[in-house]
Amino acid sequence: MDIDEFRRRVRDEFGPNLEYATPANVREFLDGLSLKQFEGKLKRRIVLNEPKTTYEEILKDFFSRVLDLPKDEALMLLWTMAFELSFEVLQHHLADSFSSLIGE
Questions:
Q1: E strand or H helix at 79, and its extent?
Q2: Distance of CA 73 to the CA centre of its chain
Q3: Are the C-beta atoms of 18 and 90 separated by less than 8 Å?
C-alpha cells in the first residue's frame, strides 16, 4: 500500500479529522491492516526467531530498522504505532475515569 492509499483508508474509516476514531474501532482498523498485509503471503508456518530478550532490546531493534526503511513505509509504520499507543493510553484513562465514577 502506498502513502496515498493509506491516507485514504484512514480518512475513510475515521473521517477527515479522525473524528470517528475510538479505542475500539482503532484496534479493529489496525488489526484489519495487519491482516491485509499478510493476506496471501503466508504459505507456510511462521518461525519466530527473535534474538532480543527484553522489551527494551526489541524496541531499539524496531526503531533501528525503521531508520533504514523507505520514507513512506517508515511514516506509515510509525504513524500506526503512535496511533495505536495513543488510543491504548486513552482507553486506560477512560477505564480509570469510569471506574472512579461507578466506585470500583
A1: helix 71-102
A2: 13
A3: no
